[in-house]
Write a structure and sequence with these properties.
It is a single chain. By secondary structure, this protein is an alpha+beta fold. The chain has 2 domains: 3-140; 149-193, Roll (SH3 type barrels). It contains 3 helices and 5 strands; from the N terminus they run αααβββββ.
Length: 201
């Protein structure tokens, strides 16, 4: 390496302490923008689509997925605030006029901004992991029953149960009170889907 090259690298190393804080601020600004957008996207997805999808899950899986999404939302908001703190700093009450005071403040502010940015990064990663976990719970968890509950109205009675088979000749359901019931179509007035059999008419 030539002497001129070494001298130039030494000059850049000396200048680095003066540009370190603006570089950290610029990096934090990018993270703040990304985290804000990600948080807004998560909020839109949860508010507009999440409820319909989560209603189909069993109670335990629904509570788990909801908890994961809410925790992810809190982490992403906290990460956005930390990135904003790193990008813009905190309000200062005093104006630093002395060179040594300004240097000490800059060193402390670089340390604070770097620490806040590291936490923002960690919260972002954890938030994304929790969102993926909630989606995984929603995808791999089936409903309480794989068979569609139906309400069957006959000439004399109303039955509710899980649909087992429906062909050209009969309808067969499994009822908690009557067990398996097979009804010919001639005796069936209507068959309607039902969410549960607790309050069947």
């Amino acid at each position: 390496m030539s002497t001129g090259s070494e001298r130039r690298w030494a000059e850049l190393a000396r200048e680095l302490e003066f540009i370190r804080l603006p570089e950290v601020r610029r990096q934090a600004e990018g993270w703040r923008t990304g985290l804000t957008g990600l948080t807004a996207l998560l909020a839109v997805l949860v508010l507009l689509k999440g409820r319909d999808n989560l209603d189909d899950l069993p109670d335990g899986a629904r509570a788990t997925a909801t908890g994961l999404l809410m925790t992810a939302f809190v982490l992403l908001v906290a990460g956005s605030l930390l990135a904003a703190r790193a990008a813009h700093g905190a309000p200062e009450r005093e104006i630093l006029l002395g060179g040594q005071a300004l240097r000490r403040w800059t060193e402390r502010e670089v340390a604070r901004a770097t620490r806040a940015l590291a936490w923002a990064y960690l919260f972002c990663v954890l938030g994304v992991i929790l969102v993926v976990g909630a989606l995984g719970v929603a995808w791999v968890t089936t409903s309480d029953s794989g068979i569609q509950p139906v309400v069957v109205r006959t000439n004399t009675d109303v039955l509710c149960g899980e649909l087992i088979v429906a062909d050209r000749h009969h309808v067969e359901i499994s009822s908690e009170t009557d067990g398996k019931v097979s009804l010919p179509w001639t005796a069936v007035m209507s068959v309607k889907p039902g969410m549960n059999c607790g309050g069947a008419p």
